[in-house]
Amino acid sequence: MSLKPIPSEQDAGSDDEPTIEGADLSPDNPMRAFLPKSFGKQTIERDMKVRVEQTRRAAPPPPPPPPKGKTPPKAKPPQDSDSDDDDSSEEEEEYPLSHELIIPAHTKPISSITLDPPGTRFVTSSYDTTIKFFDFHAMSTTHLHPFKTLEPSEAHQIHSVAFSPLDNGQHLLVVPAAPQAKILTRDGDTVLEFVKGDPYLRNMHNTKGHVSEISGGCWSPVQRGVVATAGTDSTVRIWDVQSRRGHRDIMVHKSKGKGGRSRICTVACIWNAGGPYSRPVMEVRDAHTKETWTRGLTFSSDGRLIATMGEDQYIKLWDTRKIKTPITTRANFPTPTPTPIIFSPTNNNTTLLTGDTSN
């Protein structure tokens, strides 16, 4: 190997700058692998078309061949090119189904996913006792890891997490399988842990917080910093994030069951801040099969419809103006574990989203 010397200013002339020439190596010399090919900051250009193709779903498998002795079904004849259908452009799918991205987030079932109002970050909760923070700007097809993982409630599984809707998602409500919910910042720092009630008091009106496991929680859609939680102590409690002394209001469900308490499985809000909360405005008895939980509950954005989902594998749609009987019912929907259900906010409440036992 021979290196050429750097020419001096006298040799190069006053108008030429000193230059460095590369090593004089033969093309097949193995030392070329250790030499830099370029200098300075390098920019990485990503081919977005390739990235999109990497997330495209695989084509469905071809149909199995017909059994012996049977002829395959005849193919549909091609449509007439002169028909009026050709004049209209193809309608786009209402929901994107052509691409998918599998994110290996948790080791046990995911209980909830919440997206912040700006749409830049989402948080997942799981029965593995953790919540995980993901930032879309830091993710790619080769890097799908969360930027933070927390275990907010000392080995308790997490029922749900929810970003606050009225402060641009600056706070996060965490509902664990424990008596105390938490308020975190969008970065995962603890702001507030709700008060735990006295389990030895019989009258739930005299306790400052839940005395047993919380089963659900939600933010107020109209009052900033106000949340509601439901618990297995037969109460729904309304909290103000600015107050650390206890709940602001309480609703006690009088049950005829054992011990005078029944498990409240979920809570959803169409907010009436004035109260009073002494008796229900609407009530549907036997909405689902007795001795089963009704975990899924959601209001439509206009407050006229309610969707419920129960352990009896029924999904039912109700009209709040005529609440006695459901408008429609979906049977045989497999939901072995408590699963949330929500209305779509962008298509006039005509679509419901939930999960089932399939992968």
Oligomer: single chain
Strand runs, count: 18
The proportion of residues forming helix, as a percent range, comes to: under 10%
Q: Which structural category do the helix and sheet elements fall into?
A: mainly beta
Sheet bearing the most strands, described? 4 strands, antiparallel
Low-confidence stretches: none
Strand order of the largest sheet: 1-2-3-4
Order of helices and strands: HHEEEEEEEEEEEEEEEEEE
Which descriptor suits the 3D outline? globular
End-to-end distance, in Å? Answer: 61 Å
| Percent range for β-strand residues | 15-25%
- Round the mean pLDDT to the nearest integer and report it: 81
Specify Rg, calculated over alpha carbons: 30 Å
Helix run count: 2
